[in-house]
Amino acid sequence: MKLVKEEIEIETRKLYEVIDITEKVEAVLEKSKIKNGILFANSLHNTAALIIQENDSSIFKDLEKSLEKIFPLNEKYEHSYEGNINATAHLKNCFLGNSISVPIENGKLQLGTWQRIMFIELFEARNRKVVITIIGE
Amino acid sequence: MKLVKEEIEIETRKLYEVIDITEKVEAVLEKSKIKNGILFANSLHNTAALIIQENDSSIFKDLEKSLEKIFPLNEKYEHSYEGNINATAHLKNCFLGNSISVPIENGKLQLGTWQRIMFIELFEARNRKVVITIIGE
Amino acid sequence: MKLVKEEIEIETRKLYEVIDITEKVEAVLEKSKIKNGILFANSLHNTAALIIQENDSSIFKDLEKSLEKIFPLNEKYEHSYEGNINATAHLKNCFLGNSISVPIENGKLQLGTWQRIMFIELFEARNRKVVITIIGE
């Protein structure tokens, strides 16, 4: 059994930017030479999300609209010293999560046909980091 | 340390069908002979959820009602070419998640007294797949 | 590759108590002597949450307010035999989740600058258990 760890850097440009990081993750997997096992991706941030979904912009427009309705910007928040976009970013992160796992089969990510690894910026332009951990053989 | 992987097939019959897959997962664990470690279950779908909860139908009736209120069917969605049930299924998946982990103790799933592994269909009758990965000794 | 498992006990005192368990988790990691790998924390409960977030009470006041709005106490719930706080606790758990993972780097939890491991009581005063599983070398 082998363990491989590597960091992926993501530069986001604005609130609600959605970035498909599947290829970057696959590159780490390929380099690891691990053929069978499981891969973990952990985002090191409290105001961004990391999920598995279809890479279809219409889904993320709907997600944005839902998030704005559930966590409205024009309400009073306690965590307000960086503004309401930041306050609600923390809440959205709590609901969407910041880590995923993907099984590995024959040296490839075992994702469903339409599944992709999607990073969602919930605050503003930032340098973000995702740690990839692979365990397998 | 040992690694075991196996796929579980689930045939769902309708929207909001909730299926307790704990016994199927336990069967994979038993066959693996792994006594101590951790098990991962990854659903390969963007319109279904995989969570740990109590297997009590009243909870899932409440969950259905909450989901319908948060993601109403009678709104306009961008991801509409498969209808609004599909559009909202993607959103519900983003919030509920599609993977879980369970520690293994003495060859058994180490779940809380009332915890079970529950698969929730969020779209329509489908053949679904969950990948089980077990790491342990 | 090494595997270490240990349980953490948490005594909560009331609904919405938020407990930073990062130091308890770090103590398990330190004892394990594992320098590189990944750590999993699994809460064995359906009415509490385990998430990664900033340890700032203002965020959790906002989270409480959001949860109360999304899952109002003054509605009719099917899962009502332990009261509506319990009914909504199950729903909140479905959305927030009950497990997290953290990479390990140089024998330390590899968390972002403001990330902490936070346990949230969603029901009432209870003895809670979180299982820590560490895989690494």
Biggest sheet of chain A, strands in spatial order? 1-8-3-5-6
The greatest interface between two protein chains, and residues involved on each side, is: A-B, 34 and 30 residues
Rg calc of chain A: 16 Å
> What is the count of helical runs of chain A?
3
Structure description:
3 copies of one chain form a homotrimer. Chain A has 137 residues and is of the alpha+beta class. Chain A has a single domain (2-136), classed as Jelly Rolls. The first copy, chain A, has helices at residues 22-32, 57-70, 84-96; strands at 2-11, 18-20, 37-43, 48-53, 99-105, 108-109, 116-121, 127-136. The first copy, chain A, has a 5-stranded antiparallel β-sheet, with helices on one face. A 3-stranded antiparallel β-sheet of chain A has the order 2-7-4. The radius of gyration of chain A is 16 Å and the shape is elongated. The N and C termini of chain A lie close together (5 Å). The interface between A and B is medium-sized, with 34 and 30 residues.
What topology emerges from the helices and strands here?
The structure is a homotrimer of 137-residue chains.
Chain A: E1 2-11, E2 18-20, H1 22-32, E3 37-43, E4 48-53, H2 57-70, H3 84-96, E5 99-105, E6 108-109, E7 116-121, E8 127-136
Antiparallel strand pairs in A: 1-8, 2-7, 3-5, 3-8, 4-7, 5-6
